[in-house]
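To fix ideas, we now present one chain and its tokenised fold:
***
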Amino acid sequence: MARSLDGVLGAPPETLPEGSQSGCVRPTRLEASGVKKSSWGFFFTGLVGGTLVAVYAVATPFITPALRKICLPFVPATTKQVENVVKMLRSRRGPLVDIGSGDGRIVIAAAKEGFSAVGYELNPWLVWYSRYRAWQAGVQHLAKFYISDLWKVTFSQYSNVVIFGVPQMMPQLEKKLGLELRDDARVIACRFPFPHWIPDQVTGEGIDTVWVYDMSTFRGTEKRP
């Protein structure tokens, strides 16, 4: 008795979904939509993460100096402060130094007045920016900027010293400058005065106040007629 074809070949294969090949099933619209959303999610996360890393890399050098035990944070000088400093430098000669020079505006202003001016700043980003600004102002031959900790620099070669300090550092800086500066040196303190020195001149108001200290007066070596 003849057997049926099904009996010889076995059960018929299951019907594959339309459009499938070799057992592979084409993803549905819902699945494809989920893949696209997942891709955009990874892209957005990467974009945000990259932006945060970039901001951190740029901001950290500006913020870090303010986190030290004795800090000299970057606070840009106002236009009036710069004017007051330049006013107190009139009739002065000799090299000038700005301790914690920030974005370089004091050094550049002094260079425009003909001073050979130097800025010491611990923040490398600000030093590079200051150099660019000096070049832009055309005074790069007179205005120099160096990356250095102010406590590791000797200031004996400078006749004019400018400092935008904070109260916590002024006593220690007062001692340092008193030991290092020559009798003909002038110190110009901005925003905060020195705790023990008596200023020879004071100009400006509020945050624009400038205190002027002549070492000759402090040491009693001023020339008398």
Summary: The first strand starts at residue 96 and ends at 99.
